Amino acid sequence: MNSTIIIVFLSILTGFLLFIVVYQQLGQQAGMRRSLREISGKLQEIMETGSDERVYVFTEEKELQELAAQLNGLLERHLKVKADYRRSEIAFKKMLSNISHDIKTPMTVILGYLEILRLKSGTPDEMILKTECKAKEVMELINEFFTLAKLESGDMVPELSPIDVCEQCRKSILDYYELLTGREFQVDIDLPKEPVWVQGNQESISRILNNLISNAIRYGSDGRYLGLALRVEEKTAYVDVTDRGKGIEASFADSVFERLFTMEDSRNREIQGNGLGLTIARNLARQMRGEITLRSEPHVKTVFTVRLVRCSK
Length: 313
Known about the structure:
The chain is an alpha+beta fold. The chain has helices at about 1-50, 60-120, 125-155, 165-175, 175-180, 200-220, 275-285; strands at about 160-165, 185-190, 195-200, 225-230, 235-245, 290-295, 300-310.
């Protein structure tokens, strides 16, 4: 009888000990899974925000500590590579700005000599006219490069003040009046009668509008239509520049804002562009805490929209 009790007791004790062992193992696995989830969540947060934080895990598990250490090593290398790239990018943009400036000076002299030759010849030689025209195109391209390089390197920060964007729209469209009427464009203008004040820079807004209007005329000429509208919300103003030309395929919608990107039509000399105008326009808009977006349905309607922040006068 005693031996039977002892056997039962030992059986119960063995079962209890086994239960404790299994429970501890399950607890460790659950703790490890929880720690892994924490590590994964923190790593995702760091990568999405681009912060310089590190992964920390409070555990006695050696494997998890080693994993966190290796991940932190990778994060440090990632930050170093990003910092090196940023320094190289800034250095390149400053170099481009300096080169553009250095080329600009002799081109100005060349244009001066060409103008003197043209004026002295009485009836300008066709070769002189063509040379002067091409030199002006090169000068324009240099100026665009110079502007973009200064914008991207942070050397060109426009001073912001309250601007009546409605009045600026009127001035910009009037600059193209003769060109639009000469090409028999249908022009739709929808602007509020009252001033619309935005936080911006007059020169920057003028340059953005001139770029978008000239692009609509150049690339949307087959539609013979130009629309300019100003919409307002409580804190935002939107300027829409619309054409009904060939349009832009959805696959190119983001690419048109990349530097030196040109559509296939740019091979046509009549509508040739340099691929910098929209890049400069978007940079200028962003410096004013705004943005430029594109919606296009080929051969139906293409709309570039400038978003600006409203303010009081």
